[in-house]
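Appendix C reproduces, verbatim, an entry submitted by the partner laboratory led by Prof. M.T., so that reviewers can inspect both the input and the predicted structure.
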Amino acid sequence: MKEADFIFKKTANTLPFGSVSWKAPSNIALIKYWGKKEPQIPKNPSLSFTLDACFTQTTLKYKAKTKLDTSLDTIFEIFFDGIKKDTFKPKIDLFFKRIEKYVPYINNYSFAIKTRNSFPHSSGIASSASGMSALALCIMSIEKKLNPNMDETFFYQKASFLARLGSGSAARSVKGSIVVWGKHNSIPNSSDLFGIEFPYEIHPIFKNYHDTILLVDKGQKQVSSTAGHNLMQNHPFAKKRFKQAFNNLNLLKEILKSGDQKAFIEVVESEALTLHAMMLSSKPYFILMQPNTLAIINKIWNFRKETNSNICFTLDAGANVHVLYPENEKKINNKFIINELISYCQNNQYICDRLGNGAKQFK
């Protein structure tokens, strides 16, 4: 698929009014992408676990503009947990401007966006992936009404394509339990434009993986993800890092098929630490990990050495720690997390999650 293939070309009557609703998950990247070019194109491919309990639920109400609505821009209001949120409007407005080339029909409507998260908005878990994917799926449901012959594959590819223009990681929050975003020669149909379901058989051990998210620091990050990505433009280690990500995705592709958990741990933890190493060595440099982040990592390493558990960690672009472990070790690892790790979380807050299957439409 090429970018031009996603431009809506059909002519159709404007729908008078209606409402569509989607629930879209967050995700956690195991192979990280850090560095991009416009428009939201990754410098290296990434692979993520889709989460189940951390999701955004969005209802998009639409109404055809009247002759009195002379604005050429998309008209919308946004409500979060039932409360009007004008502070959210600039990001949504930018999203609409980025996608209107591909979905020009949105300017025929006024919208009311009603959204909520299953997790606290201030929890430190990035909601842009789930939020933008839910909104993109709602827009695609309108397009499906305008073009009933659209097939399912195109529907989800374009939803991921649109979501990416709102938030890069949102491309991985549309369809599938394990998702690849970014062109990789060894993964058929992979693309920089949208995410795809991991196309290979997955070993049973990885089909029921758990992710306990330890909320170490819920504060505002000192450097935004966008600014962090931009710092990779002149990063002294950028080329080596991009090559490493391609190689690690090759390794993880085989690991997910074979079920080799020790190799899984080595790749996933290395990826997490490399992400933060890029931050530490950029100009200007910055640190998003906190002392409690490092304390948790050391606790996990010691526990794994003592018990031979397959528990491991990954990190997002922040201080929080995602603790990963298989279903068959749930009891021992949950006990360790509660007894040894929760005390390092801000207000003792954590979220229990597990591998999910992707977005779902609801009425």
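Residues 238-258 form the longest helix (21 residues). Additional entries are available on request from the coordinating office.
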